[in-house]
Amino acid sequence: MAYVINDECINCGACEAECPTSCISQGEKIYVVNADECVDCGACAGVCPVDAVKEG
Length: 56
Fold this sequence. Notes:
Blueprint lengths: L2 E3 L8 H5 L5 E3 L4 E3 L9 H5 L5 E3 L1
């Protein structure tokens, strides 16, 4: 199950920089995860300062 980023995202970009598969990108309002490329490693969730990244 891919990770998702909720509306608590503050657009800091920490998750994007940490993602080993580069499946996180800047969306229109918040960062988004490409579920087809996510390998469920959890690296993004571990660096989010506001706990906006959750298992989907």
